[in-house]
Specification:
Elements: H1 7-20, E1 29-33, H2 39-47, E2 52-55, H3 58-71, E3 76-79, H4 88-94, E4 97-101, H5 104-117, E5 122-126, H6 140-152, E6 157-161, H7 170-183, E7 188-190, H8 197-202, E8 207-210, H9 212-215
Parallel strand pairs: 1-2, 1-8, 2-3, 3-4, 4-5, 5-6, 6-7
The structure holds pyridoxal-5'-phosphate.
Pyridoxal-5'-phosphate binds at residues 33, 35, 56, 80-81, 163, 193-194, 209-213.
Length: 222
């Protein structure tokens, strides 16, 4: 199967969805989710001029992005998957943004690392809007207190992130995330994937995480 880079198509769809609700294309950041994609596909998207990518595993990102960075110095890399505390330092080194701040222990580790290094990636608190047992994230009922605790640790929180349950209408979850962000004075909303990013933009997404719609179906990990 031939691989056709779909980044411009997706960018156009983002612009159209944003314009329908009176927003600009620039108000939505497109994170091209490159996890488990062959390096040739990632390189093709880089060649097209796109620089913002998402990975869901620290190990995988560490294996491919340092090399890509030798060719492109302005790569903006986002961690969108769960983070073990013992990989937090490595994540600070690799990523400009972390979307999976999901527990007090990680917040404390981030605060300590920020103090030590004088640097902190942009942070999103992941909210488990569907209250799914197998999914990471702070429960909606505990989100306000957790965000407050993060601020007390001097962590600057950019916004909230969610991954809606696969079998439910995502708009309900996007609306809930937006409501929690608003009442906590947060502007960033990381929500929307290949199948639902237009709905997410309608409900205020500032960051959409799009993988297969750009790169094609994910192939198996090597
Ligand atoms: C894989 C992944 C995506 C992208 O999924 P697609 O359906 O391929 O667009 C978005 N967000 C997270 C957290 C992911 O793990």
């Amino acid at each position: 199967m031939e691989f056709k880079v779909g980044i411009q198509d997706i960018s156009d769809r983002i612009a159209a969805a944003a314009s329908k609700v009176g927003r600009s294309r620039e108000s939505v950041k497109l994170i091209a989710v490159s996890k488990v994609q062959p390096n040739a596909r990632v390189a093709a998207v880089l060649q097209e001029g796109h620089r913002c990518f998402g990975e869901n595993r620290v190990q995988e990102a560490a294996g491919k992005w340092p090399e890509f960075r030798e060719g492109f110095d302005d790569i903006d890399l986002h961690l969108i998957g769960p983070l073990q505390t013992n990989k937090a330092r490595q994540a600070f080194d690799l990523f400009q943004s972390i979307h999976s701040l999901d527990r007090p222990k990680l917040a404390k580790t981030f605060a300590r690392l920020a103090q030590e290094t004088g640097y902190c990636p942009e942070l999103f608190v992941q909210v488990n809007t569907g209250e799914e047992a197998q999914k990471a994230g702070i429960l909606p009922s505990e989100a306000d207190a957790f965000i407050k605790d993060c601020k007390a640790l001097d962590l600057s929180i950019t916004g909230l992130m969610c991954i809606p349950p696969v079998d439910e209408e995502p708009s309900l979850h996007f609306a809930l995330l937006s409501k929690i962000a608003k009442r906590n004075g947060l502007d960033g909303l990381s929500m929307g994937m290949s199948s639902d990013f237009e709905k997410a933009i309608r409900l205020g997404a500032t960051h959409v995480r799009v993988g297969s719609a750009i790169f094609g179906a994910r192939v198996a990990a090597p």
